[in-house]
Amino acid sequence: MYIHLQYNSRNSLKKVNTSSFSMKTKFNFAQLLIQWSIENPRTLPWIAEKNPYKVWVSEIMLQQTRVETVLPYFEKFIKAFPTIQSLAVATESQIFKRWEGLGYYSRARNMHFTAKYIVNELNGNFPNNRAALLKLKGIGRYTSAAIASFCYDENVAALDGNGIRILSRVFGIAENPWTLSGVTYFEKQAAAILPKNQAALFNQALMDFGSKICLPKNPHCQDCPFSFACKANREDRIAEFPIKKTKIELRKRHFHYFVIQDQKNNFWIHKRVENDIWKGLHEFYLIETTKKNLSKRVVQQIFGKLNSALNPEIILNFSQKLSHQHIFTYFYAVKPIEKAVQADFFLVKQENLKKFAFPKSILVFLENFIRL
DNA sequence: AAAGCGGGGGT
DNA sequence: ACCCCAGCTTT
Question: pLDDT higher for A20 or A77?
Fold first, then answer.
């Protein structure tokens, strides 16, 4: 059966039966979607925003991050760095501090790089088309399309997780969106149904619809304007679309943090510089183990020669399940040490700790044990 | 193609 | 416990 969607005179739907279901419904899908979005408006700081700098900031923050999480960060970030010039001249540490707790910190580093590039090499002119945007560090297929459509009305579909989910279900697209060929196929299909000169509206509608109706689990098909045409719904195969990412085994890591001060109660900290989690953030002296237990011999080896006291006791436990690692963090108190335990460590006064960016686990420790 | 990268909210 | 979020970069 071919479903053709059209509005009747009362602007409600009726079905027209034909021979087979196909992307021929594209025009109707898009208009129906836009109609839904007009009836279900959403107010967010970046919606209808045309300033490419602000849209860029919002899109980078929203990568793999929920809207509710981003909102306070976005407001503070824009207040701290109102223009791309202000971001370009900021220090990385200032930027990281505004990103603290948001996760995926390479996003902040890439933004800084790109801000400097645009200001210094492009005279501050933000690239104004998808192809040029795609070349910028930190901007990929989705984000380039989003900025191009929202700011410059380029006719390009921006497919994030929402778009993939909706299209795969409604049109029964079985391609694997987590492969390059798969996402290319989805983009091709989206381009075919994208209404001319309404890309911004369409892309925004797709994401709003994905967040309110076509949810990953338990979608609200009863409120969905195309549920009668949706292949996944009609065939009762919603759970099969889209293809799921193959889940990875969480690497377990045990972080033993030694909170070391000097006799004046300054704290020894350093910046993580390795290509590892939390690169660019700060931390206390760390001994990492693959298993829970930290041998006393190792502690002796490190702290013994520093003439420090042992019998460190765990003063706080913290467990974090990240998307790719399960990190157990333990904090130990030790007696003061006057000499850096490692060359890159430096002393910070207690009241200045808040100027540095830390991972969440250390923030929790500081909030509970150190008055800032 | 696969791995690595945060943190949190919903079910 | 599991899913996945307005994904991208590196290997």
Answer: A77
**Distance, CA of A351 to CA of A107 (rounded, Å):** 28
- β-bridge partners, A282: A271
Catalytic sites of A, residue numbers: 59
Question: Looking at the domain A251-369, which fold is it?
Answer: Nucleoside Triphosphate Pyrophosphohydrolase (3.90.79)
pLDDT one-digit tens code per residue, A242-273: 999 988 889 999 999 999 999 999 999 999 99
How far, in Å, is the CA of A275 from the C1' of nucleotide C11?
12
Asked if strand C contacts A244 at the CB level, meaning under 7 A, the answer is yes
Q: If you average pLDDT over every residue of chain A, what do you get?
A: 90
pLDDT at residue A27 greater than cutoff 60: no
Does residue A64 reach within 7 angstroms of strand B, measured from its CB? Answer: yes
Nearest CA to A53 among A106, A126, A161? A126
Please tell me the predicted confidence (pLDDT) of residue A294: 87
Question: Domain residue spans in chain A?
Answer: 52-240, 251-369
Query: How far, CA to CA in Å, does A194 sit from each of A161, A352, A357?
Result: 17, 52, 42
Q: From the C1' of C7, which residue's alpha carbon is nearest?
A: A63
> A75: part of which helix (H) or strand (E)?
helix A67-80
pLDDT of residue A5: 33
Bases of chain C with protein Cβ within 7 A: 2-11
The architecture (CATH level 2) of A52-240 comes to Orthogonal Bundle (1.10)
Tens of pLDDT, residue by residue over A301-329, are 777 766 555 567 788 999 999 999 999 99
- Asked if residue A2 lies in contact with residue A17, where contact means CB atoms within 8 angstroms, the answer is yes
**Per-position DSSP letters for A189-216, written without gaps between them:** HHHHHPPTT-HHHHHHHHHHHHHHTS-S
**Which residue bears the tokens 């479903």?**
A3
